[in-house]
UniProtKB/TrEMBL annotation:
The chain holds residues 260 to 735 of 834 of the full protein. The keyword rRNA-binding does not apply. It comes from the Bacteria. GTP binds at residues 85-92, 132-136, 186-189. The keyword GTP-binding applies. One of the essential components for the initiation of protein synthesis. Protects formylmethionyl-tRNA from spontaneous hydrolysis and promotes its binding to the 30S ribosomal subunits. Also involved in the hydrolysis of GTP during the formation of the 70S ribosomal complex. Its main location: cytoplasm. Belongs to the TRAFAC class translation factor GTPase superfamily. Classic translation factor GTPase family. IF-2 subfamily. It is found in: Cytoplasm. GO terms for cellular component: cytosol. This is Translation initiation factor IF-2. GO terms for molecular function: GTP binding; GTPase activity; translation initiation factor activity. Residues 76-244 form the Tr-type G domain.
Length: 476
């Protein structure tokens, strides 16, 4: 895969001349229109302090002609769902209740295995996959690592408690990811449940349910009394149909590691969510920077399976080392190739540790390709009045060319959750009379998230104006 110097410069948002100069210093005199190979391009990207992010594994598969599956190879696949909501609103209870509602769980005679995800079969034989780690932290962490596995978010709101800070966070994280949402209004068995109040509170956060004229489905449920679980599953099925989720099952498998651990008896284990293709026993693969050969696969009901298709979660045995959650999982032709890809990825990981800017090629490319650019921000302040004033002032800076997008705003110290969100979206975090806590600072350090502290609003807007102008660059 070769790229011209100019094209690379565009993607990096750097001046072509500067790239030529750097290349010259590196001992490769080339002109703007000449192509350079992948390795040189990467070296250059790193040199300029950008982070390399692979859009797809095919980037390293130099032989593969095209990595996009043709339309006629695509078949419907089950949706992958993450449950989010405030603590104690019933996320875990709902996950358990839905698992119990699975029509095949009983007849299979299997024993529930907690492998990090599970799949339920509806009476019409359609399926829905649930990720077992609820909450927006895990969701956004995966996203920050480049793994977008969730198709639909179920937002759980307890009808006796209404919207709470983490509910709002979950809404904002979901919106930042552009993932559609279904609201499960839980605990309707309680006498003090007020479902309508929940709908109205959602309205204030621009989540408009169908009854109120919006397009967000909501379902009143009780995880405890197992009320309306079928309706929730139907809503998910419907949303999946709207999304037209499809994948090619007839190709080498690709997926994402959902969970991984070292088992005393069985060695390294990883739960993989297959995203396209079909994984089979005997397949050679790379998972993150480790490789292996599928020795066996076990599903969420404890059954050994011979193959796993799109949206199917399986625990894979046969890894050489423990990968990390969010790592890509790719089947390759042979073990030599697996070692090569694994070594290559290790190199990318090592280089990432030493680079500085949190910008990815993919992000830069995306923002330059669209007509209106976005300037994402996370805003935290000491009091609600300031939060509102700041968000208002920032929104007024939007122009036709670049729009301010406040991904999340709230009162209080900057938390780890704020940092993960910012990191996943390449956004700086503004602290107005507030600072990050220790954990947030640590995560920000690791992910190169920028903090900006202010105590005067117009200082903040001055900075934002300048930064937005900088984003647009001189040529646009
Ligand atoms: P999570 O923190 O969101 O995972 O919430 P949990 O699932 O742990 O539930 C918190 C508490 O709410 C537990 O005591 C549950 O038994 C209770 N709970 C969950 N769902 C319901 C429900 O539908 N009705 C009632 N009455 N209680 C529920």
């Amino acid at each position: 895969e070769a790229i011209t110097v100019q094209e690379l410069a565009n993607r990096m948002a750097e001046r072509g001349a500067d790239l030529v100069k750097a290349l010259f210093k590196m001992g490769s005199p080339v002109t703007l229109t000449q192509t350079i190979d992948q390795d040189t391009a990467e070296l250059l990207v790193t040199e300029f302090g950008h982070t390399i992010k692979r859009v797809s594994e095919s980037d390293i598969d130099i032989d593969s002609s095209s990595d996009v599956d043709a339309d006629d190879t695509l078949q419907p696949r089950p949706p992958v769902v993450t449950i989010m909501g405030h603590v104690d609103h019933g996320k875990t209870s709902l996950l358990d209740a839905i698992r119990g509602a699975d029509v095949v769980a009983g007849e299979a005679g299997g024993i529930t295995q907690h492998i990090g995800a599970y799949q339920v079969t509806l009476p019409d034989n359609s399926k829905v996959t649930f990720l077992d780690t609820p909450g927006h932290e895990a969701f956004t962490e995966m996203r920050a690592r480049g793994a977008n596995v969730t198709d639909i978010v179920v937002l759980v709101v307890a009808a006796d408690d209404g919207l709470k800070p983490q509910t709002v966070e979950a809404i904002n994280h979901t919106k930042a990811a552009g993932v559609p949402m279904i609201v499960a209004i839980n605990k309707i068995d309680k006498p003090e449940a007020k479902a309508q109040r929940v709908r109205e509170e959602l309205l204030q956060h621009e989540v408009i349910v169908e009854d109120l004229g919006g397009d967000v489905q909501d379902v009143e449920v009780s995880a405890k009394a197992k009320t309306n679980l079928d309706k929730l599953l139907e809503a998910l099925h419907l949303q999946a149909e709207i999304l037209e989720l499809k994948a090619n099952p007839d190709r080498a498998a690709e997926g994402t590691v959902i969970e991984a651990k070292l088992d005393k008896g069985r060695g390294p284990l990883a739960t993989v969510l297959i995203q396209r293709g079909t994984l089979r026993v005997g397949d050679v693969f790379v998972a993150g920077a480790s490789s292996g050969k599928v020795r066996a696969m076990i599903d969420d009901k404890g059954r050994q399976v011979k193959e796993a298709g799109p949206s199917f979660p399986v625990e894979v045995l046969g890894l050489s080392a423990v990968p990390a959650a969010g790592d890509p999982f790719t089947v390759v032709e042979n073990e030599g190739r697996a070692r090569e890809v694994a070594a290559y990825r290790q190199g990318v990981i090592d280089r990432k540790r030493t680079t500085s800017a949190p910008v990815s090629l993919e992000n830069m490319f995306a923002s330059h390709a669209s007509t209106t650019m976005e300037f994402p921000l996370v805003v935290k302040a000491d009091v609600q009045g300031s939060v509102e004033a700041i968000v208002h002032a920032l929104n007024r800076l939007s122009t036709d060319e670049i729009k301010v997008r406040v991904l999340h705003s709230g009162v209080g110290a900057i938390t780890e959750s704020d940092v993960t969100l910012a990191s996943a979206s390449g956004a700086p975090i503004i602290g107005f009379n507030v600072r990050p806590n220790a954990k947030a600072r640590e995560v920000a350090d690791r992910n190169k998230v920028e903090f900006r502290y202010y105590d005067v609003i117009y200082h903040l807007t001055d900075w934002a104006k300048g930064a937005m102008a900088g984003e647009l660059g001189p040529e646009i």
